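User: Teach me something about this protein's shape.
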Amino acid sequence: MSADAAHPGDESAAKAPAGLAGRIPLILLALAVIGSAVFILGLTSKITFITDEWDLLLLRPGWGFGQLLDPFHEHTVIAPALIYKVFQPVFGMDSARPYQLAATGTFLLSCVLFFVYVRRRVGDWAALIMTALILFLGGAFEDLLWTFQIGYFGSLAAGLGALIALDRDDRRGDLWASALLIVSVSFSSVGIPFIAGAVAEWLLNPRERKRRLLVMGAPVAFYALWWLGWGSQAESELSLSNIPDLPSYLFTAISAGFTTIAGLATGDGSEPDQPHLIWGKLLFVAAVLLSAWRLRRRGEVPRGLLVVAAIGLSFYLLAGLNQSDLRPPESSRYQLPSAVFILLVAAWVLQGIRFRPPVLAVAALVSALAIFNGLQLMKDQAEGRWQPSSSALLTSLGAIDVAGDEVRPGYTLLLGLEEPVPFEDYRRATEDFGSPGKSADELAAGDPAERAAADSTLITALGLEMIGRLPRRHIKCVPLRPGDTYEVTGRSPDIKNRGDEDLGIGLTLFSDAPGTEIGSILPEGSGGFNLPRHLATDRPWRIAITRGGPATVCG
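Assistant: First, the predicted structure itself:
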């Protein structure tokens, strides 16, 4: 993969016009990078930490080999774990924004490196169009909206950097490539396909192999040592039983990549019916036929094409061997690397072609339509699913923060991980680094549904429930009728049912009366409950009748 005259595609880049006209593609690239950042960060501004991020935030306390090297499922997350560990004491956990900025910045870096690599094959203008498709790849919203995917972004950025280093075809480039491949695989298992590409490049390059063994040897040794020490103990979906399904999986997965690039993706890829996947399949078949025709006319298969093909094929094979009901080939989370690998192959197939302005104009127009459709999907997903679910989570966490140390023993949080998170782990992290949960004032200012959800979570976390007991002597008792509310001033009110049917009692701290029902009392029966001593708010509890009545409340 020499960057010398052996690459006809480099000629167009080398002869790019000087001056302002020659800088226009770079200026447009900078504007596209800024536009992508604004769009992504605008959508993520209302999104908090999501599912797998909580593993890095809560379940790896302290510093040690295990905290950094333990796998997440079967994946390496060494670099993401390190980033989160550095960010927690510096920026805290009050907001996900610093983490989102780091993830988005890493994604943008991978796009710029993609442009650098591709422009050497197809020139600035074609590379700009390809890069724009990646920068605004709306069908990959699960990657672009999710900070945890910094693992993907880091692997892609370092892997593309390694390809650029290999372009030097000298000793220094080999050393840089080796180091970057180690960085790539430390971010996520998406680095493994780049190692496969390095192996292919080592085998195909006529330079002396023994002196270049470090290119693939160092990252292979790094990953092997990690796997022997930590990765082999991880739960994995990798199964040889998936081999018979590989041809079908590969065809569907690559077709899904073409569908996403064309801006025709729908949903998150988990639906049983993908209405536009047929277009991706047709585009894939057409691309294969046109590529075969192009290479036949060229009379050779470039070494670089074989390298990037090895990278893409390794990615799809690994994904196919790990497939499960939760990992369909059309899944949104696979679309970013899929699109990158497809376009890398396309760049090598198109290498050396001089694109006329009308052709570039048509390509730009078609790409703009694809980008528009993709971004609309991404916006719909963010506003329809991700932002509301984040708001609901922040409401729940805020309620748990209000409960504080009064949370009942054994309480766990459902944060989207495979196992519930013990409250003690959450409490330890939030005491040290703050909580992203809504404050008591924010909970009180929420809409009725949010305030009701806060009360429900709070009552569950505290373990509040009605207890049947005989009435005790109280200084003050007041009647309570349906529609009335009673502000509790003590910790242990007693309630007497004065009606002829079961009496339902609602309790509220934030929501509108009658609040969340915590139990019932039989006719002429009595009961009560014990409120916690210390909460992170001075708001009073209120009691109301949810059904039946009247009643007498003593406190």
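Now, about its shape. The longest helix spans residues 357-403. The chain has three domains: 24-387, 400-459, 466-554. If you'd like, I can walk through any region in more detail.
User: That's plenty for now, thanks!
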